[in-house]
Amino acid sequence: MKGSRAQAIKAVLSQRAGDRCEYCHSPRSVTPNHFHIEHIVPRVHGGGDDLANLALACAACNYGKGTNLSGIDPNTAHVVQLFNPRVDDWKAHFELSEARVNGRTPVGRATVAVLRMNDSARVEARRLSIETGRWNG
Q1: Closest to 73 (Cα-Cα) out of 62, 81, 61, 65
Q2: Which of 8, 13, 33, 37 could make an S-S bridge to 59, C-beta 3.0–4.6 Å?
Q3: pLDDT mean over 3-13
Q4: How many CA atoms lie less than 13 Å away from 94 in the CB half-sphere?
């Protein structure tokens, strides 16, 4: 997607997502990298460009997810599908504890691991955002 169409789609996604990453819930205002239009089911796996298959994602989550559709739950070692922001409820799968995103379910735990949501730099950025009142995730 390029140009004005991409900008229009990003505006729709941003409004739908509350201007935050649909995976880690980082608000755009506290995320140093640009937000991306992310294909929930990547094109390589047959995903399309329809709004039902698109999510607003911070660069870190988008790059971490890549073309993955599944991951391994670190607690059970079972392969599970990754979080799908169009059909899964964020609060059912994740919780914010201090500045860490913790998975509540196998889907949540696998998604946290694959997307590396708790890398030290991301946790520190979250912590600072929470402490300064800029976090609305």
Answers
A1: 81
A2: 33
A3: 86
A4: 24
